[in-house]
Write a structure and sequence with these properties.
about 110 residues; globular
Length: about 110
């Protein structure tokens, strides 16, 4: 696995996005920033659960506290899907799409 990687995306509507990943950084950089024409969303550390939303109307901070075990909500959802014979929120089709995107990044 690489220590770092960068990918630039062009979406169907013409918008662009950039992804920067670093696995060997001493300091955790689990951040997310999304900028759009109507505002932006900022998450300094994904697993802390604080989200800053900025729009023309102002700025707000939302709190989405994570589970004590970060994987537990996915495990619970999968278990409930099996027991109720329904699709989990994150199914195999999402993993397949992630792998397709990763393969396309490496192909470039």
């Amino acid at each position: 696995m690489e220590d770092a990687g960068i990918a630039v995306f062009r979406f169907a509507g013409g918008a662009c996005g950039a992804l920067s990943v670093a696995h060997a950084a001493r300091e955790a950089q689990d951040t997310l920033d999304i900028f759009g024409s109507q505002g932006s969303i900022h998450v300094a550390t994904l697993n802390e659960g604080n989200v800053r939303v900025k729009t023309n109307e102002g700025e707000r901070v939302e709190a989405w506290p994570p589970a004590a075990n970060f994987h537990q909500p996915l495990i619970d959802d999968f278990t409930n899907a099996v027991l109720s014979n329904t699709e989990p929120k994150v199914g195999g089709h999402i993993g397949l799409e992630v792998n397709r995107i990763e393969a396309e990044i490496y192909r470039q």
